[in-house]
Amino acid sequence: MKPDVLMTRPSTPAAAEALERSFTLHKLWKVEDRSSFFKEVGPAIRGLATDGGAGAPAELMRALPKLEIVAVNGVGLDAVDLKYAKEKGVVVANTPDVLTEDVADMALVLLLAAAREVVVGDAYVRSAAWERQGNRPLTRRVNGKRAGIVGLGRIGRAVARRLEALNMQIAYHNRRPIESPYVYYADPEALARDVDFLIVTAAGGEGSRGLVGRGVIAALGPEGILVNVARGTVVDQPALIEALRENRLAAAGLDVFADEPRVPDELRSLPNVVLQPHHGSGTVETRAAMADLVVRNLQAHFAGGLLPSPVDLV
Ligand code: 8YV
C-alpha cells in the first residue's frame, strides 16, 4: 500500500510523476469540491508535498488529521505553520543547499542588471532607439563597491562569495553576528548608510517583516541599489516603490514581491527596476534536485528512516 500524499500546487510534471511512483498522489489544485475532498480523502492523507508559497497553514493541516509529514519544495518555511506542526508532532522537511547557488546567481544577475541597466539597454537596441537617438546615458559600476547583505545564511554567503570575485567590500546584518570574514552591523539602517548595494537574503516570516523599511531605504540613498531574492515581506514594498519613483533610491532588482504573483502596476511601470517571477531556484537542474529531495524526504519518513533534510522544530 502506497502512503497517501497530497500535493498542494503543480511544480514540474516530473516532480508529480516522481511522487506518483512512490505514493498515492492527490493533487489539490485539481480538486473541485474541497470540502467533500477533505471529508472523504482528508483522513487518509499522511504526507503533504508543498512549496514555499503554498506552504502548510494550520487550516490545511487541521483538515488532514492523519498528517505525519510536510515536505516543502523550497527552503523558505514562512508559509508553514511550524508551531502547529510541532504541537501535532508533524515532521517538516525542506530543500536547503541544492538551491543555494542558483538563488545567489539570481541575486548577482539582478544587481548587475539593475546597475548596468541591462533590460533598458536591451529595449534600447531592439527598438532601434540607439540608431535614432544615439548613445544611452552611462550606467553604474558594480565591481569594487561596498555591498551589504541582509541575512548572511547559506544563500547570503553564496552571494558574498560572488561579490568577493567582483572585489567588493562586504558587510552584513543578522540578528546576531556569526563567524564570517565580513563586517557585522547590528543596525540594518547603519549598514544601508555605509554601502552602495543592499542584498536581501534573509528568511521570511514575522521575524523579518518590514526589516528593510522606510529608514533603511532612505539610508541606502539616491545612489543605492536594493536587491531582494528572499521574500517580499522583508521589504516595505510601498516605501520601496515611493523611493524608486522619486529617485530617492537609484534602482532595485526584485525576484520576490509582497503578494505574488500580483505586482503593483506602479512597480511594473518603473524604468529603474528589474523584475523576475520568483525564479531564484528556477533552473531545470535545481528544480529537479529539489523535487528529488522532496521525494527522498517522504520516502525516508515512510520507511521509518532518517530524513535527508529535516527541519529542526525548536
Ligand atoms: C521556490 C523558494 O520558488 O526555496 C524557496 O523558499 O521560494 C523557491 O525556491 C518555491 O518554494 C516554489 O517551489
Automatic annotation (TrEMBL):
Coiled coil: none
UniProt keyword list: NAD, Oxidoreductase
Domain annotation D-isomer specific 2-hydroxyacid dehydrogenase catalytic: ranges: 6-311
Family annotation (InterPro entries): D-isomer_2-hydroxyacid_DH (IPR050223), D-isomer_2_OHA_DH_cat_dom (IPR006139), D-isomer_DH_NAD-bd (IPR006140), NAD(P)-bd_dom_sf (IPR036291)
Pfam families noted in UniProt: 2-Hacid_dh, 2-Hacid_dh_C
UniProt domain D-isomer specific 2-hydroxyacid dehydrogenase NAD-binding: residue ranges: 109-280
Sequence similarity: Belongs to the D-isomer specific 2-hydroxyacid dehydrogenase family.
UniProt protein name: 2-hydroxyacid dehydrogenase
Organism listed in the record: Paludisphaera mucosa
